[in-house]
Design goal:
The complex is a heterodimer of chains A (112) and B (265). A 4-stranded antiparallel sheet of chain A has the order 2-3-1-4. With 112 residues, chain A is an alpha+beta fold. In chain A, a hairpin with a 2-residue loop joins strand 2 and strand 3. Chain A is 47% helix and 17% strand. With 265 residues, chain B is an alpha/beta fold. In chain B, 63% of the residues lie in helices and 8% in strands. Chain B has a 4-stranded parallel sheet with strand order 3-7-6-5, with helices on both faces. Chain B has a 3-stranded antiparallel sheet with strand order 2-1-4. In chain B, a hairpin with a 2-residue loop joins strand 1 and strand 2. The chains are: A alpha+beta (112), B alpha/beta (265).
Chain lengths: 112, 265
């Protein structure tokens, strides 16, 4: 899909207008951002916004996320185990210390 | 105030153009009053209140809350949010997000990738041709030379593509920083608008009962009466242009009640 994020009042208003007029190309709206269908029409609408508001519009393309393809087993397990921790107040860094769970800094340095 | 139109001069705090054989329109007088450079008018400088009700025409349209809040400001009133409003405006002025244009960087990546793919295909097909010529006992010299050239070009194209991708990554990083500023600007603009609305409501409310009392003077409480009532509760120094029935006995008595200079056009 195409993620369109706006950064000014005028661009936000144009995005609202576009979403109202082209509901068939809008997957999801979030205030000053929206997800457009990955079609040429979706791209056309996003590009029109950029033409009009230049740097106040950001366009990114999203890809479907399959954690079994893109994320290592250790990370998936860590997420599952941390969410079933006994103490809600325990930070993840503390939780991971001395276990097999990857530490947050190491994860931050590893690209997907 | 002093007015000079069509070679004549009027002076005083209540001026009546009716019966004076002038063709000057109310709008002309009003614009001249608002334009500090206009030499046809000598008068105190108009305040924001003037923009709301400084020209009273039949069926005048104005926002009552906005006008009453400007009236309160004309009397030196403040709203509790004024300090925050000032701080927000100062921060807004200090923000000037850089404009990072990524278009050329994106195009360069696309062009470089395209060129690289084409050359990669060309190298593959030349490799095939060289192999076939060798296998069949043909002379591969020309094909080998072409392959060597294409391989060199491919290496260059690859270098260019990597450089283009790095340039784009750098530009995206800069754009990200500038977007942080833009997001902050948007947040402050929204905050400013809400504070302004809050201040207006508060200031208008301060004068509400005075305004209602002033409105009681008129039997017909239409928009003209409302505009005159706003002028009555405001501190008006610049001349008010009246271009409709005022329901006063004279221009002088209107000027008295409004406590402002009046031009009846």
């Amino acid at each position: 899909m195409l993620l369109v994020v706006t950064y000014s009042r005028e661009a936000r208003q144009t995005l609202r207008n576009v979403c109202n007029t082209h509901e068939e190309s809008v997957v999801q709206r979030f205030g000053r951002a929206a997800l457009f269908e990955a079609t040429e029409l979706g791209a056309f609408l996003a590009l029109r916004l950029r033409e009009k508001h230049d740097a106040d519009v950001q366009i990114e393309r999203t890809v479907p996320f399959n954690e079994f393809e893109t994320v290592g087993d250790d990370v998936r397990t860590a997420a599952r185990e941390y969410e079933s921790r006994d103490q809600p107040s325990t930070s993840y860094a503390k939780f991971a210390a001395g276990t097999d769970c990857p530490d947050p800094e190491a994860m931050a340095d590893r690209e997907l | 105030m002093k007015l000079r139109f069509e070679g004549r001069t009027w002076a005083g705090s209540a001026i009546d153009f009716r019966g004076a054989e002038t063709t000057v329109s109310p709008e002309t007088v009003f614009e001249a009053i608002r334009d500090g450079e206009d030499e046809r008018v000598t008068c105190p400088e108009p305040r924001p209140i003037h923009g709301h009700v400084g020209l009273v025409v039949p069926d005048i349209e104005f926002d009552r809350t906005d006008a009453l809040s400007a009236a309160a400001r004309s009397r030196g009133s403040h709203a509790p949010v004024d300090d925050e409003l000032r701080a927000v405006r100062e921060r807004l002025e200090a923000l000037s997000p850089a404009s990072i244009n990524l278009r050329s960087a994106r195009r360069r990546v696309a062009d470089a990738s395209g060129a690289e793919s084409e050359l990669r295909e060309r190298v593959a097909s030349l490799q095939g041709r060289v192999r076939a010529l060798r296998d069949t006992g043909g002379d591969p010299t020309t094909a080998e030379a072409e392959l060597a050239t294409a391989t060199g070009e491919l290496a260059e194209a690859e270098t260019e593509r990597i450089a283009a991708e790095q340039a784009l990554a750098t530009a995206r990083e800069q754009a990200r920083e500038s977007r942080e500023n833009r997001r902050e600007r948007l947040r402050l603009q929204d905050r400013e608008r809400n504070l302004r609305r809050e201040a207006r409501a508060h200031l208008a409310e301060q004068l509400r009962s005075e305004f209602d009392a002033a409105l009681d003077r008129f039997s017909d409480e239409d928009s003209t009466a409302q505009a005159l009532a706003v002028l009555h509760v405001a501190d008006v120094r610049a001349p008010v242009v009246v271009a409709c029935e005022t329901r006063f006995e004279s221009v002088e008595s209107a000027a008295d009640w409004l406590d402002a200079p009046v031009v009846r056009v």
